[in-house]
Sequence to fold (1464 residues):
Amino acid sequence: MSSTFGKNVKISVSGQSHSPALGVIVDGLPAGFDIDMDALDAFMQRRAPGRNKFSTPRSEADKPEFLSGLVGTTTCGAPLMAIIRNTNTRSADYDNLRDVPRPAHADFTANEKYRGYQDVSGGGHFSGRITAAICIAGGIALQMLKKQGIEVFAHIKRIHGQNAQSPTDYTPDELDRLRQVSAKDFPVYDDEAGERMKSEITKASANGDSVGGVIECAVIGLPVGVGEPMFDGLESRISAAIFAVPAVKGIEFGSGFGCADLYGSEHNDPFYMDENGNIKTKTNNHGGILGGISSGMPLVFRTAIKPTPSIAKRQESVSLSRHENAPLEIKGRHDPCIVQRAVPVIEAVAALTVLDLLIDTPNYNL
Amino acid sequence: MSSTFGKNVKISVSGQSHSPALGVIVDGLPAGFDIDMDALDAFMQRRAPGRNKFSTPRSEADKPEFLSGLVGTTTCGAPLMAIIRNTNTRSADYDNLRDVPRPAHADFTANEKYRGYQDVSGGGHFSGRITAAICIAGGIALQMLKKQGIEVFAHIKRIHGQNAQSPTDYTPDELDRLRQVSAKDFPVYDDEAGERMKSEITKASANGDSVGGVIECAVIGLPVGVGEPMFDGLESRISAAIFAVPAVKGIEFGSGFGCADLYGSEHNDPFYMDENGNIKTKTNNHGGILGGISSGMPLVFRTAIKPTPSIAKRQESVSLSRHENAPLEIKGRHDPCIVQRAVPVIEAVAALTVLDLLIDTPNYNL
Amino acid sequence: MSSTFGKNVKISVSGQSHSPALGVIVDGLPAGFDIDMDALDAFMQRRAPGRNKFSTPRSEADKPEFLSGLVGTTTCGAPLMAIIRNTNTRSADYDNLRDVPRPAHADFTANEKYRGYQDVSGGGHFSGRITAAICIAGGIALQMLKKQGIEVFAHIKRIHGQNAQSPTDYTPDELDRLRQVSAKDFPVYDDEAGERMKSEITKASANGDSVGGVIECAVIGLPVGVGEPMFDGLESRISAAIFAVPAVKGIEFGSGFGCADLYGSEHNDPFYMDENGNIKTKTNNHGGILGGISSGMPLVFRTAIKPTPSIAKRQESVSLSRHENAPLEIKGRHDPCIVQRAVPVIEAVAALTVLDLLIDTPNYNL
Amino acid sequence: MSSTFGKNVKISVSGQSHSPALGVIVDGLPAGFDIDMDALDAFMQRRAPGRNKFSTPRSEADKPEFLSGLVGTTTCGAPLMAIIRNTNTRSADYDNLRDVPRPAHADFTANEKYRGYQDVSGGGHFSGRITAAICIAGGIALQMLKKQGIEVFAHIKRIHGQNAQSPTDYTPDELDRLRQVSAKDFPVYDDEAGERMKSEITKASANGDSVGGVIECAVIGLPVGVGEPMFDGLESRISAAIFAVPAVKGIEFGSGFGCADLYGSEHNDPFYMDENGNIKTKTNNHGGILGGISSGMPLVFRTAIKPTPSIAKRQESVSLSRHENAPLEIKGRHDPCIVQRAVPVIEAVAALTVLDLLIDTPNYNL
Fold:
């Protein structure tokens, strides 16, 4: 097991879908930061279940209880600990999964690794529910970054073949529009595409099926020089954290996989001096990162999210006890699409990683 | 700077393009393994420059000198240290880059981060040349894995819009064919596509331009249970290491970004019991990983490699000293495409990561 | 802040003396271990305050509440999280300490490091109370080790100049006697010396003063080969963890500082073959460790614990606000001696460190 | 194996006593520091063998060759790599030790851990010779600290029962005298005691025996606030690094084990405001550290070094092949006392640890 991450701001994430609580300890947060608890609650609600018809009917308040690390609402330098009680669990729904693993879930691999001792109920520690704990830490990181003039914006880029527009240049107008995306139930930059996406989800749901998508995330306002070369480059650290989020199948920065079809002369982003004497690039195929280090341009990455593996349709699987093929029908309450709920999680993970690396950036005291 | 990686097998990578030598210290290799030095040399040659007309004319033997960690050719439990002398350097080629950073290179970000103290020559520590040091460690890891029945196969999947076939099921015949790919100057599974790719490279080169591509890599023979959940999952650890390789823009596992267009009922890989009583999946959209843990199916991932940023064509940049726009013409010797040379590097990085996680797999003593 | 420790079994410790709760997340515990909750409670009681007249009258049940990581009472491979609520806090006792730091406490250094944002109340995160969280993790580690035939025994070796006997050879009889030491209110191997020690404490207490001492700890039953050379040697890892316990001023292994007065011919422990064909040493100046690696002999170390810094006597200090010297009288409830309460903490820390290294010992599967 | 250390400045140490070379990679050194190579050579000579009649006659120049990390003699932000060739090896001297392990050496434990594959010659990776590699990194760290006004002074405190004086208050005069200690062949603060110590060494040597001792080390000029609570406190980090030095049996900070005999009212160091408005303590039992964090007072610690285990006298051991007791006579060239040579090693280790933590100290940019 390895549910810890970070060098300066270290998080340790705990909890199972149906354990008494989820929790997180965050070690190394700068002291003296006053957390806006209302803003944090609002952020938590963006991920919380039961928010709209596209997510599981399981209802959880997801309100963190802070057990340490604060004096009042201000960080005191000591490790911050927060928990969320699990209240609305129906473990009986999962009884048959101990023997018949769900396709595309960790039931089978966890059973082998933990020799049958894993917590089967609700997917245990492998449940997407664990991301609520990450969001507590990430929600605080987002506030800390914002105070430094750094904002993180994720939005749905694609769902089941339906693509949405993205900002083109992160102009002030586009940033305003991105800020409004966060407040939406369905966080898409381009509402027209959003309607098409919703239709896809509705259609899949009606068929007992599910769909996946792509989330785009931009970090705006990073100074030049954040990130280290090689294994602690921005891409290495962000990708390592992003793949900790269940259901992620890929990540790309800037031009991403599209770079394979371009000439160097097209892909290289020309430098120029802007009117304020800052060095910028005319295009942003590099996605704001050169040599693992931020260039001062928007840091842009995209994450592929697979279709929710829990579907109502009957599936083929095996019986672990009888060593034979066995059909599977999944009970329980599931999301036909988790992409919209994963949007704040991606922001949380990006914020934590950037904050951690920002602390190592010389001349940048938090 | 962070040029160290690994939990059990820890590598520390050092060197600049034009420093006296590159080097690597590998801490934690199991004792008692006899390195096949001929096989290691052959592996190093796959990455070495000057091998064919598609790579830089800079000629380097890239033969590692072992300074510690061995008794004869057998690992002794002590950290292994190996170096490669840089011999064929022409630093004068890089004089102008101190002032005018190359687009899509780390010249600009390194200059800001290290306040002008970075080694400009040949790209310094950010040069692709550093991957030679990784390949020493990775070449040994590949041999150790092979002894455990685990093989790693990378091949060129795409170059500038030209796609090559892949194995479909990793049958014994397909594995034999993959083993032959490694011996090729141009490591492609599908030679007909290889010819089309070579044409693209030749055309770009003739225009003073460059092209990028995609590399596919499969790890075959992994037992079930390798990898840890969350931040030490196979995807997290592999991606963190892969993005340390210069020029990587994206990584995807199994279905990757394609998952965004599938229904759950299509994407979920049905389990079945094979004739030997092993649990397998009918398809492999999960890419051999569920919940960060190996499923026993082939671990498959793809990596996007950008077009070589150093091109002969005149480009737009800025003068750091004069604070104004400035054109750039790059001298020096460069590859019109580095995808073919990156193939063994991807294998090396995958092998090191898998070996590191394998050591943590219970009941698996190396 | 850095309140995390361990490579395989990673603990993250949280809490302040007067925060809502203390907590610990333990990542990497082997799955399938059934925790004896009664034994754990008994272990926690050995450290808990209010147990006898030599400790603070602050009364805390110190009963851990488990929030994740278990199915029933059995570890499931997921991170284990447990908390202890702080109930009996009297923060008003600490109001004056924000301005006038207590000598030999972290009040002053914390104030400088956290720029006044630290939690002053009860010493905040620097309070010895935090060791309760370590004891939860350590109590489980002790049980896991015991199942492997490894036992950890700490006892009071010295208090304010009064020395107690130690076992000489860890014979079966001596081990039985050590097992009984754990059950004592005042855990000393030699009760006669224990009475002299208690007199010293009583005398100090009557004078509004405090005393310190030395704790000896032995780990019995370790196989040969636990520990790694250099920075992950047994001494490096144990000492790093032991100094995390408040009030520790020194640590020595085997002969310790006494080695400075011996000849090599006296200090070298001769090897011999015992009647069962095991290699042992006639003496144990090496304290069971050679080159950082366990030798199979008892691992023995001693830890110096300073006199409790909180004393009733008036002391000299400074006013941080007025920038002048200022007298200090400490209110609150304090232990005249914490050595006896530190005994189980030393056992907990030793057990966690040994368990972590044991997992890396080849052919030793937990 | 674990021969890596550090969070920000990470060292990876490599080499065996008789391998082609020793080496070190240092990742994370601040860029732009110009190394004084003459001063570094002089520092290396303090540890080098063959310097006087009290050390082994094996003669090694111990001059580091820098392979990367520099532009000229200035750090460039890339990992620094340096090696020292082993030239004067006589491996035949060690043939018999494969079968008959030396008492108090790692021969036996290494043989068990590495199943006979360890490098026996000269003690392999467990040899004190490895500290030469640490001294390269540490020598640079000492220069970096000095530029920040921080100096590290170690000297011999005790040898075989003979105690030397120490500075009492680290006054300017005492610091001048400490600076001269470094230049001495026999680095003792108190020359009269030094003569008594030398007599002890001479006497032991004449008898084919050896002696041990204690080294005291002070770090002067540390600002308040260096170090983190709990596991990354100054004591935790320094002790972990110090125990990586072969032959260390104990470490104590400030009052150390002596604290066990004092009342709290004696041991607590009263704070006062000095004439410049700085907060200081009247005594320094806390050794410059409170709660793991530097207080601004001199950081003082002492390290116990065991008698050199390689002695000419016949000893008792066992034959690993014949499973029976066997006498041992050690050939080879050995030091009758290594305390004087360990003095710069202690300084090197302290400097590396302090530099690493200093980088994490807010408002302190290197």
Summary: The interface with chain B takes residues 7-8, 78, 229, 360, 362-363, 365 of chain C (CB under 8 Å). Residues 4-358 of chain C form a domain with the Chorismate synthase, AroC fold fold (CATH 3.60.150.10). The first helix of chain C runs from residue 37 to 47. Chain C has a mean pLDDT of 94.
